[in-house]
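__Protein archive entry__

___
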Amino acid sequence: METSERTSAARQIYALRHVRNEDKTKYMITELKQDGVWYHGSNVLFSELRTGSTITQWKELAEALSHQPGIQSYDDDGVIGHNGKEKGYLYIIEEAVDIQKDIYKHPETSMDENAEFLIKRPLKVK
């Protein structure tokens, strides 16, 4: 099992990530859908997500991040484990997100392809 380690100013996250395929290990690739539902997880209540915030189409990832984990991981099947203990809120982005204009890949992610993005403009949430 391969471990990727990154340190951010807020927390340290270890992401265990791999998919076995004929004796080769390759990273999971999350399918990105233009008309898909976007999520954000937080332990704070608000109605608008600020520019630079993280969003994902992986609902369970947003749920896990809402609990402010210091460590999180996911297995071959995408099942997420974490040590977060905060009360968390799952937000759904309430307006259309244009993949070409409104988001960009998180530059310091320890997650796999298409797992998390940063937003270029404020977005309404519910």
The two ends are 37 Å apart (CA to CA). The chain has a mean pLDDT of 77. The helical segments are 59-66. Residues 28 and 112 are 6 Å apart (CA to CA).
